[in-house]
Each structure stands twice: as C-alpha cells, then as structure tokens.
Amino acid sequence: MHSTLAALPLLALFSAAPLAAADFPPITDEERAVTAVPGEPNAAAVVLFKKGEFLMMGHGLATGSLASHLQVQARVKILTEAGKSNGEIAIAHSDFTRLASFEGRTVLPDGRVVPVPPDAKFVRKTSQSQRTLLTAVAFPAVEVGAILDYRYELVFKSPFLLDPWYFAEEVPVRYSEIVFKVASGWQMRPWTRSPFGVKIQQEGQKTSGGDVMRAWAQDLPSVPDDPYGPPYADLAAQMVFLPIAGAFGAYQYQELLASWPHAFRLLITTYLDVRHRDFGVAQRARQIAAAGTPRQKAEALYRFVRDEVETEADPGVFVDPAAALREVLSRRRGSPTEKALLLQAMLWAVRIPSSPVWAADRNRGTPDLGLPNPAWFDTMIVAADLDGTQIFLDPTERTLAFGQLRAGHEGTKALMPGIENARVIVLPEAPFQDNAQIAQIALELDEKGRLAGTGTLRLTGHHAREAIGRNWNEWLAERCRDFQVSGVKTVETPDDRKVVVTWSLMQREEEVLGDESSLLPSAPLGPARQPFVQPSSSRKTTVMFEYADRTEVELRLRWPAAWKIESQPAAAALQNGVGELAVSVEAKEGSLVFRRRFDLSRRLLRSPQEYDAAQALFAAAEKSDAQGMVLVRR
Class of 260-426 per CATH? Predict the structure, then answer.
C-alpha cells in the first residue's frame, strides 16, 4: 500500500496516535444468531462487517504531518470447524506503511471475552531486500460460534492511497465500507471493479473541513479459490479514490492524475531530474563497456547494474525526487526505478538508445488502463534498442538473465511512458519449451536385487531461475525416498538460464527385498497429480498457470540375466490444444528405456473447452505415472 507522487516533495514518516481505546461495538442478537450464509451453505466463516476510514494527510487528527492514516475495524464469525483456520489474520506493512496499533478479542458463544494478548502477535519478514513485513495475529480460544473483533491502524509515508480498498474477502462478507476524508480543495476520482455482480454504492458530502466520500457493499460472496485461478485482485470487489488535483499547503495547486499525460509528466519530469544528477555515471559506463558489439556492451552494463547495485525497497514506478544517479552509483544501492534509470543513463553513455517501461506483475491483478494510476505497475524495466530489436531488461534480481523477464510480467500489458508519445505494449513471453526440466536417470539392478545409479537434471528458463540457490539434497531426498542420494553437484549459470544437477543413487537397504524390485519411473519429476477436480460447469474463473513449460524424464534401466521385468508402464499419447503427453517404453532382454514428456503449451485457458482439455491432459499423466515398474527374480 505504498505509492508516492514523484513531482511532490519528499514526505517524512511521522508517528501517529494509536486508535482510541474505546470498546468494540456491541454484538447484536442478530449477529449471535448467524449460523450460515444464504447462498453459501458451506461457508466456514463470515465477515460480519469490515470498515475502513482513510484520513488523507492526517485529516482531522491535528498531527501537523503529511502522512495519511488508514483505520480498519472488522468482525468475523466462525461457522464450522474448518473455519477455525480464520482465527489467524495477517497484516502487510513495510518501511513505507507502518503498523501503528492493533487490538483484538475473541467473544465466545457463552459471552465470555478473551482479549488478544500481546504475545499472540508475531512478525514475519516476507522480503529482506524490500523490507516488507507481515504481522500475523493468532486469536485465542477460537471455536465454532466464536466472534473475532479486531482493529488496527496503518500510517502511510505517502499522503495517497493509490492501491484499492477490497470489499470482498476469501469468505463471505455481509457488509463492507470505506470512508475517505480529504481536505478542501482536493479533487478525487472514484474507480471501482465489481466482478460477479456485486453492487458498490457511493455517496459524498462536503463539510467545513473538506470532502467525505463513502462507498459500501452488502452481501458479498466469497472470492473464488479455484486451482490456478486469477489473482485475488482480479476477483474481489474494490475501489480506488484517485487524486486528480490539489495542493500541499503552501505548494502550488496542480494537476496530478487527471489523465495519463498528467501522470507521465509528473513522473518523467522527476526521472529527468534524477538522471541529470549523474556525475561520474557516463565515465563509469564507458569503463565497464569499453569494447565489443553493442549487445556485448549492453550485457556488461546490465550485469553491473543487476549484480553490483543492490536492490532496495520501494517497489513501483515512483522515485524520490531528491534522488541522484551519482549517489546510486557511489552507494551501490538503489530502488528498482533508480536502477532502471541508472541502466538507461549508462546505455545512453555508450550510444545505445533505450526507453523506460512500466510493468505490472499479473499476480498483483490486471491494470485497468482507463484509470491513470501509476500504482498499477510494480516495477520499471528498460527496453534497449539493439540491432533493430527491443530487448527488455529487468536489473532488479540477480537470477534474471539478459533479456529475461519475470514470469509474472511475461505476456502482460505494459506502458512505455512519454510526455509526447506514450505506448501500450505487450511484453514478450518465452515459448513453453524454453522453460524445461529434463531428468535423465540411469539405474542398474545387481544380483542381490539392489538398484543403484546416477541422475542428471537440467533446468532452463523459469525453472532454472526458480531453482537457483535451492537445497538440492533436500529436494532429491523428498523425490527419491527409496534411495540414498549422494555426491550432489550443482552448476548454476543464470546468464545462460540453466541449472544442471548431478547425483548418485543407491537403493536404501530396507527397501531391498531380494526377489522383487519396484520403482516409479516418472521420478524425480513425477508422479503428476490432477489439479482440476471440479467439472468445467462448476469452474467460475479462467485458468492461469505461472508459465507454460516442458517436463521430460528418461529412465535407462538394466538388470542381470537372473531377473526379468514383470510389469511396466504402457505407452501413452494425448495431444490437444493445451499440451501433449507422450510416454514410450523400449524393452529388450536385460534393459529398458522409459521416456515421458509432458508439455503444457498454454499459460492461459479461457473457455470451458480449454479447461476440459487441461483436465484430460493431467488425468492422462496421472494415470500413466501411477503405473510402476516391477522386476522379479526368474
């Protein structure tokens, strides 16, 4: 929930007074009587109400700061045993969004009240590089029929809340509202997204202290939780109040986010200011990229910014107006936007043209480009022009190769901002076969009936990126449980988008039977499991895989003359519009080669027919992978 307008002065984070220590609203007889939710008889819990009040620049608090405050109060009722999992809530915050206070209690069906003790709260660090935190609170004495009350306050470094207020939750919500209070002279634009027919009502009034805008919704269904479904942000009813124009005290009244050109002008003006404070940047760029082709120079500069400049917190496309590239270079630290600006300046110094690109990870929700809100975008990347081709560069993570995008950015709409000429583009998506995991296993059965051999796993593309730094001993032990794994060696080459792992296998002594030996030939990349158990008629959402990919397993098995193969997987073949399964077995006296390839060639499935095709593909893979291989003594 952090967003700051670039053309405005840098804001300091001020302390805030905690929420008033008043009693929670009394629980009504009607709330006590709730045991089920109409239309959702299997609901495990229900949000009886959720209310937020956003005080822009501390409206009405007399704090004397420009920091804004969001006060939230909610009441949840546990309806079933499964609903007891809702007895823990999590609140996201960071260096930029401070959790100022929290209070909570459990009200039991017999009327007893159990306050949330201080030691029930604990903080998890979700991202060390971005210094984001998650405070989880476990409510005491949670049981069926209990009511959980809580309230908390967030204090924003920014005066604006450009991220949405979500009316809906993972469980049904009977009533949700958000109230925005802003000082006189500010112009705000409401925006809503309302899937599944949820009606969001609005009203506003002017007071002597400014404008009060209220929005509310009733009887919201639970947000669908389909396997591989769209992100929560695409499914939940939500609202944003966007600042169109206004002024900060003595600062001149100005247009803010009235349109995309206004938004571009605000941010690009600040980008240029930051880039102009660049003493030493061009000289350092020419030292790093002293020779080679334009592509080689671009690769050298990209690796420098990616690897030698640490990525700090502050995701998004905003930048501190007081920032300077010379300081980013000297400190070797910068926000994602500062690193993108540094890379641009260095490319320019060696005569490689480039453009900024605002990218939005699909897991954060689909931007509505009809609303000029830069907060839609989670990072800025660079489009470098090389030999007439645009190469997209994201220098924020050391696992990203030159020209490689995060999976969440591939295939999404992005903006190339410009004061005079802005464009909407679609970021490229890697072919499914580039995201491969290929295992080759060689096993031999000895006279005593013990299997031993070696394994090699080759990962490319996004599979390789995800695997960098993985504990392979644990990973292999989990997937080769009948074997002792030893001699694990790993070669990681992020710039080639490859990881290669090799290891030795020896069947565990307790698994050796002497007259029979069995194994699942799809390991370590199988067996497959069917993720789509509901019929397409019950599916409420589209299917979104993180990325399309290819999985291959090749098993070469040998055995002595005193043994024979008793059973083996059958060949299988299925190809449809979603992907392909191909299983083959080549057996002869004393040896066998098993090959299995599973291609998921589509990342996004929109229609019931495509869903049925994916269901059939996984069903075929699950059926095939369940067939083991058995060797017996003659």
Answer: alpha beta
